[in-house]
Write a structure and sequence with these properties.
- The structure holds two protein chains of two kinds.
- By secondary structure, chain A is an alpha+beta fold.
- Chain A has a single domain, classed as SCP2 sterol-binding domain (Nonspecific Lipid-transfer Protein, Chain A), CATH 3.30.1050.
- Chain A has eight helices and five strands, in the order H-H-E-E-E-H-E-H-H-E-H-H-H.
- In chain A, strands 3-2-1-4-5 form a five-stranded mixed beta sheet.
- Helix content of chain B is 47%, strand content 15%.
- The longest helix of chain B has 30 residues.
- Chain B has three domains: 121 residues, Acyl-CoA dehydrogenase/oxidase, N-terminal domain (Butyryl-Coa Dehydrogenase, subunit A, domain 1), CATH 1.10.540; 109 residues, Butyryl-CoA Dehydrogenase, subunit A, domain 2, CATH 2.40.110.10; 156 residues, Up-down Bundle (Butyryl-CoA Dehydrogenase, subunit A, domain 3).
- In chain B, strands 1, 2, 3, 4, 5, 6, 7, 8 and 9 form a nine-stranded mixed beta sheet that branches.
- Chain B is built from twelve helices and eleven strands.
- The two termini of chain B are 19 Å apart.
- In chain B, helix 1 packs parallel to helix 3 and helix 4 packs antiparallel against helix 8.
- The chains are: A alpha+beta, B alpha+beta.
- At the A-B interface, strand 4, helix 5, strand 5 and helix 6 of A face helix 6 and helix 7 of B.
């Protein structure tokens, strides 16, 4: 990958990163962990700018202005490149937080419990990129 | 500039395990056991401080209580004690003997940390052993190069048939003489034992393990490791904090708990607040012993700082103020610790900036540590030269309190974390 941003625009972010959250909200392990709770994560991404609101209890994902207008209990801020790395298992979330590559605010204790569950979706994300012919987004 | 509170205040939420919490009535029963055990620790503590060895007779006494399973969730057969309830028990035991309690404190720390990170299946097995077999857990992490903050140089080399063999040395094996379950961290290497090349890869490869731990108490040899009786320190003699050398110690795949740094982030309160509880118990003991001596001590006729034909020290101004100062310090520290336990249990720590979670939790410990050291020093000054004699409780508490300088986080580390956060730029650094 070059120094340029991995995603060319917000629509690509919504397709791939938003798509992963769509998958996560429908995955049994996530449903079990979040049902009956109030975990709604607003992911604000940079380079390119994008916003995704993930409502785990209601299993919905909205993007753009609709996401920014919604109410969240957890706010996550990171670059789109790092989001791409994260879903491929190439970003150590704790280290990224310590290095301020990722900012997490709000009721994060619940959100952090989901981290181990994301591992099961890494292969799915990489396969989606391959199926779409987006090898340029794969991180070595 | 960074804020020390997050912008959106989050209302407290009940702990998920609240429904299975230990009732006040059941806690009182357990606390009575802690009081009895504390009395026993108080009786034999001086002997083992002098012998400079772990207090071996305490093992059976401790196992005879229901306190091993105090903090284990009810769904795994334990009592479901909270952070605060466990803290109260640890402080009560520490009032009896700080060094012996510092050893058993390791059990509560590792039950809390490992229990919070293991899968349900692992918890059922390992915590189940604590409940059913009254087994004790411990966890050596520090190595020569650094304490908690240092990435593990200890290696976990993958084996062809699965699992890992552990190689390396842990220097602070507190409670190793009583434990039969070990939890520890090591960095997973390639099959030839090479550590990952990059810092990022090392962080990701540093892992948390759990395994059986058994060794011959005469030869000090276990299967794939041996214990070196190296503990010889200023204070905390009876902890039995020895060096453990791993030389091919096998951990099966089922003994892998999680990636260490990610996992540790959310559970380190069990270390910091339990250490704080030890020193709070010591504060209580210093105050108790000071009152005992100073309320009775008579100097007779004196001609010095005080001039009088007959002086009872309990009537001397700086003694009165000194005891009042010690009691005030104890009370403020108690409230600090109890409130920190409650805030963490209620999830109010979500209102702190994430980077400050650990140092903010650590404030209870560092604040209590600074106060217990001040109190032991002040007690000796007020009691006088007799307190300096070997075997006197005051010199003992003075020595033991110095250990509070070290367990993570210490004051310097905490201040660095906080200052670094406040001075760091807001923008993300890719």
């Amino acid at each position: 990958m070059s120094d340029e941003n991995a995603f060319k625009d917000a629509d690509e972010v919504y397709k791939y990163i938003g798509g992963m959250f769509e998958t996560a909200t429908k995955t049994p392990a996530f449903i079990e962990e979040t049902q009956g709770g109030n975990l709604v994560i607003l992911i604000k991404q940079t380079k390119p700018d994008a916003a995704i609101l993930v409502d785990f209890p209601n299993q919905t994902v909205v993007t753009g202005d609709e996401a920014l207008a919604g109410k969240s209990t957890v706010q996550l801020r990171m670059s789109s490149d790092n989001a791409n790395k994260f879903w491929q298992g190439k970003l150590n979330f704790t280290l990224a937080m310590a290095q301020r590559k990722v900012k997490l605010d709000g009721k994060r204790s619940v959100a952090l419990k989901l981290l181990p569950l994301t591992e099961g979706l890494f292969d799915s994300y990489k396969q989606t990129l391959k199926d779409d012919g987006r090898e340029d987004l794969l991180v070595a | 500039m960074a804020s020390t509170q997050t912008d959106d205040y989050q209302a407290p939420t009940s702990d998920k395990s609240f429904d299975a919490a230990l009732s006040d009535e059941d806690f009182d029963t357990l606390f009575e056991q802690a009081e009895e055990l504390s009395e026993y620790f108080r009786e034999i503590g001086p002997e083992y401080d002098k012998k400079n060895t772990f207090a071996f007779p305490t093992i059976e006494k401790y196992k005879a209580t229901d306190l091993l399973a105090l903090s284990i969730p009810k769904k795994f057969g334990g009592h479901g004690g909270s952070l605060l309830q466990t803290s109260k028990v640890v402080s009560e035991l520490s009032k009896g003997d700080s060094a012996i309690t510092l050893a058993y404190n390791m059990h509560y720390i590792m039950v809390g940390i490992a229990g919070g990170l293991m899968s349900d299946e692992q918890n059922e097995y390992w915590l189940g052993r604590v409940v059913k077999n009254k087994e004790i857990m411990f966890g050596p992490f520090s190595e020569k190069r650094a304490g908690f903050s240092g990435l593990a140089d200890m290696k976990a080399i993958p084996q062809e048939g699965g699992g890992w063999k552990i190689y390396g040395t842990k220097t602070w094996g507190t409670l190793c003489d009583a434990a039969s379950i070990i939890t520890t961290n090591a960095t997973i290497t390639d099959k030839d034992g090479n550590l990952p090349d990059t810092f990022e890869e090392r962080v990701a490869a540093e892992s948390f393990f759990i395994a059986d731990f058994e060794f011959d108490k005469d030869t000090l040899q276990g299967d794939g490791f041996h214990v070196e009786r190296t503990w010889d320190s200023l204070g905390m003699h009876a902890t039995g904090t020895h060096t453990i050398v791993f030389d091919g110690f096998f951990v099966p795949e089922s003994g892998f708990i999680c990636e260490w740094r990610s996992g540790a982030f959310g559970v380190l309160e069990w270390a910091s607040l339990m250490f704080a509880s030890i020193y709070l118990g010591m504060q209580s003991r210093v105050l108790e012993e000071s009152i005992k001596v100073l309320s009775k001590k008579t100097l007779g006729a004196v001609f010095g700082a005080t001039v009088a034909s007959d002086v009872k020290v309990s009537g001397v101004g700086h003694i009165i103020d000194g005891v009042g100062d010690m009691a005030s310090r104890y009370e403020i520290c108690r409230r600090t610790l109890y409130r920190t336990c409650e805030e963490v249990t209620l999830g109010l720590d979500d209102n702190w900036p994430m980077e400050l979670r650990f140092p903010y939790i650590g404030l209870a410990k560092t604040f209590i540590a600074e106060n217990v050291m001040e109190m032991t020093k002040h007690a000796m000054s007020m009691v006088g030269g007799m307190s300096f004699r070997r075997g006197m409780i005051f010199e003992r508490l003075y020595r033991d309190s110095a250990a509070s300088l070290f367990q993570p986080l210490n004051g310097d580390q905490g201040r660095t974390y906080i200052g670094e956060y406040l001075l760091a730029p807001e923008e993300l650094e890719d």
